[in-house]
Each structure stands twice: as structure tokens, then as C-alpha cells.
Amino acid sequence: MVAAEQVHNFINGDWHSPATSTLLDVKNPATAQAIARVPLSPAEEVNQAVIAAQKAFVEWRRTPALERIQYLFRLKALMEANLDDLARTITNEAGKTYGESVAEMRRGIENVEVACGIPAMMQGYNNEDIASGIDEHLFRQPLGVVAAITPFNFPAMIPLWFLPYAVATGNCFILKPSEKVPMTSQKLLALVQQVGFPAGVIQTVNGGKETVDALLDHPGVRAISFVGSTPVAKYIYSRATANGKRAQCQGGAKNPVVIMPDADMEMTTRIMADSAFGCAGQRCLAASVAITVGDAKNTFTEFIADAASSRKVGYGLDEGVQMGPVINPDSKQRIETLIAQGETEGAKILVDGRSKTVNGYEDGYFVYPTILDGVPPQSNIASTEIFGPVLSLMHANTIEDALALVNNRAYGNMACIFTSSGAAARRFRYEADAGNIGINIGVAAPMAFFPFSGWNDSFFGDLHAQSWHGVEFYTQTKIVVERWPRDWSRQF
Ligand code: NAD
């Protein structure tokens, strides 16, 4: 039994515990043992962080971009050196396998690398002689204090979609991590402290709704980045913007994947199993509905049922484990209830992952891979985000019918097609109503140098996370029109 670690806020360059706050247990989802206690910080804690950030901003925005990124180069080196420890922490609090945690860290570090290009990325532009003797320039300036509110499923990568761009462009950044997984960000912030960022440039305030509301309402916070479920994304977008802040809010998903009869079935099944069951289905880019077209139905159904039944489930740090638990007992119960609802609505449970335990981890929150066949397109289960290792199967006769099913949904995070036909792939790319498209790809996750382009109910705002969108989101443009009248006949 390991003693539960106390999680602290990192405010004004130091570790801090709020004087009054409730403490919440953080449990390892594979063992159900408490491994940490996290404070639910009150509004006053947010206020202290904002004041420290406003103070730090005065000097930080004047620090040349080239100097600001030197801190990020050091942060990258420290993250690489501590990758194993960070990955183990992710597995212990979020449940994913060690390999998945390492991959998450890699995707996070890539964002730090891209943000090191800020001196070029935040350049403006100009014109000489917009009128005789008059020049015009566009500069990008930081906003001030900005904040990010992040979900449980990528405790390192998602904060890193925002932090490096925010500080490289000259802002001061406050992170409100998910209260379900606060240990990874505590470790990241310990590295921030080791790097020696000036006090107040990067801070964390742990907590839940009260802490979030304090950030949304604080007049000193200029911009809010959010990733999480759609109802909360909508709420945060409307409250932040009503308070005059910039907001980018990424929401939930229900990602359809079309499988054409000419797809390479062995490759497709392998990739689809990883997409649907990787990270126990707790990825906003998980395949959740597979739509087979024509003859693809029989082969794919048989292959994917095999892949689901043979996936090794267990504690993510154990050798050979391919899938870990879901985040908590509420989540397990919600997923199992939705599976039952699918059956009531007319689907057939082809592979049932309910009521199974893992030897040695009998208390863990495990749901095994599950496949629902023949899910009716108009059913609730066809459009509800399950966020667990459950793949729904639907069947269509033609690509037109399949596209109609793809586009008949509120979310628009990702849509994929598996085919060997360029024409089918192009048509899909052109017509699918989603912002991230995969062609023979199961998780179409944009690299750090592309924006993460969710659409529809998967995103509220206009500028997405990562890359150029991040630079634009965290800067405001300033136009300067300039004239220097002088006597041209005079010599210098
Ligand atoms: P969540 O919405 O429950 O929580 C996200 C954050 O919001 C947390 O920090 C939480 O403390 C805060 N929060 C929760 N309820 C709140 C409320 N009522 N008021 C104010 N703040 C609140 O999401 P989660 O369960 O942590 O994460 C899973 C969800 O995130 C899924 O829906 C998944 O699809 C989505 N997600 C989306 C993306 C994307 O890029 N679109 C990426 C990862 C996860």
C-alpha cells in the first residue's frame, strides 16, 4: 500500500496548498487504491495565481522570443530525461498502458518542439508606401494571462497543446488540470520549476467547477482553452465569451469509420482494434462506429470480433497488457449501462466486455472490449458518446449510404475510410462532415504542426489547439501606420 501523495498548486514559483479546500482522492483505476489527494481550490486561489501572472507578464512579454524559447528547449530536455517516470505516472492515474503513456508524452513533447519555432511563427508582415512615404506593419502581441482547463484522458499531452504556444508567444499561463489526474501535471510543473521559468509565467490551480468558474469570471484572464465533454465545452464557451474572453473549446466525439469491400482487411482490422480499444476507448479520436459497405460486412465482423476477444486486458505497467481499465467506477457503470441500452434498442452484443475481472486486480475498473452489431442508425446508442472500449457496427450497401450515416451526427471530430480506391477516398475526404479525416488511418490525430480541427459539436470557437492556430489564438494583431516626414534634400 503506497501512501497517498498530496497534490499542490504551483503559484508564483512555489508549491502552495489552499487554506480552505476539500481534498479529493485520486485512485489508480487498475487497483482502486488512493494514490494522491487533490485540493478543490476556491476562487481566492485562482485570484492569487492571476495576480502573480499579471505581475510576471510585465517582464515576460518584454523578454525576446528567442530568449523565451530557451526555457522551452530546457523543458524538452527535462521531459525527455524524465519520460519513463512521467509515463508511469500517467499509467498509474489514467489507466492506459505504459506504451500508450510513452506515445502520449511523445505527442506532448512535439508541441514543445514546434513552439520553439515561435520567433518565426509569430512574425507579422508589412508594406512600404501604402501611400507615398507611409508604411504599414502588422505585429503580433501576447494577450496577457491565459488559462487552460483540461480532461482526464491525456494528462500530459493536452496541457501541452496549449502551454508551450502560450508562453512562447509571451503570455503567462495557468493550468487547471483534471481533478481525476492531477499527478502528471504536478510532475510537469516540477520540471517547469527546475527549468527556472520566472515566477508566475506558468502556474497550476487544481480543482473542479468552482475553480473553473473563478477562471471564467476573473477579469484578469484574457483567454480560455478547454478540452473535455461537449456539455461542459458549451458551458465554458458561452460563459467565457459572455465575459469578453477569447475561447477555444474542444468537446466530445462519436467517430464513424467506413470500411469499403476493397480495403486490406487484415490491416484494417488491426488498425481498427487499436483505434476502438486503445486507451480503453477513452480517446476523442477513438473509432466508435464502424460502417461496413457491401461485402466488407462478413469478413470485417468476423475479424474484429476475434481481435476484440483476444485483446489482453490488465494493469498498464504489466508486461504484454494491451488495454487498461477505464477511469473510475462511474465511468464503468455508465459504459455498461449504455451497452445494455444498445441491446434494448435492437443491437446484438457480439462480444460482451461486461462483468469481467482481471486476476490480481479484482477491484479495478475494467470493461473488456465490446462489439455491438447491427446498431440501428436512429437509436440513442448510435449518437451517444460512450467513451469506453465499445465498437458499434452498422452496415450500408453503397458509399452514398455510408456517407449519409457518417454525416447524420452532431459531432465532427473525426471520420475515416479504409479502401484501396483513390476515387472513394477522395470522395470521402471531400464530403465527410468532420474536421479530422483518416484515409486508411484509425486515429487521425494531427501532428503538432497542424491544428487539431474538430468541427460541429466537437468544437466551439474558431482557432483550434496546436501550431499556427495556437499562435493566432494567443496573440492579438496590432497595426501600425507610420509616416516620418523629413526634408529629403538634407544629408545625414
Ligand atoms: P469533462 O468535461 O468532465 O471535464 C473536463 C474539465 O472540465 C475538467 O478539468 C473538469 O474539472 C472540468 N469540468 C467538469 N465539469 C465541469 C462543470 N460543470 N463546470 C466547469 N468545469 C467542469 O471531461 P473528462 O471526462 O475529463 O474528459 C472526457 C471528455 O473529453 C470526452 O467527452 C472526450 O471526448 C473529451 N475530449 C475531447 C478532446 C478533443 O480534442 N475534442 C480530447 C480529449 C478528450
Overview of this protein structure:
There is one protein chain. The chain is of the alpha/beta class and 492 residues long. The chain folds into 2 domains: 5-251 and 458-479, Aldehyde Dehydrogenase, Chain A, domain 1, CATH 3.40.605.10; 255-439, Aldehyde Dehydrogenase, Chain A, domain 2 (3-Layer(aba) Sandwich). The protein is 39% helix and 23% strand. It is built from 16 helices and 23 strands. It has helices at 43-60, 65-81, 83-94, 98-115, 118-121, 157-168, 182-195, 209-217, 230-242, 265-277, 296-310, 329-344, 380-383, 399-407, 422-431, 467-473, and strands at 5-6, 9-11, 14-16, 22-28, 33-40, 125-131, 134-142, 145-149, 172-176, 202-204, 221-227, 246-250, 255-259, 287-293, 348-351, 370-373, 390-396, 411-412, 414-418, 436-439, 455-456, 459-460, 475-483. The strands form 6 sheets. It has a 7-stranded mixed sheet with strand order 15-16-17-14-13-19-20, sandwiched between helices. It has a 6-stranded mixed sheet with strand order 10-9-8-11-12-22, with helices on both faces. A hairpin with a 2-residue loop joins strand 6 and strand 7 (134-142). Helix 1 (43-60) crosses helix 8 (209-217), helix 2 (65-81) runs antiparallel to helix 4 (98-115) and helix 3 crosses helix 4. The model has no long low-confidence stretch (mean pLDDT 97). The structure holds nicotinamide-adenine-dinucleotide. The site of nicotinamide-adenine-dinucleotide has 27 residues, from helix 8 and helix 9.
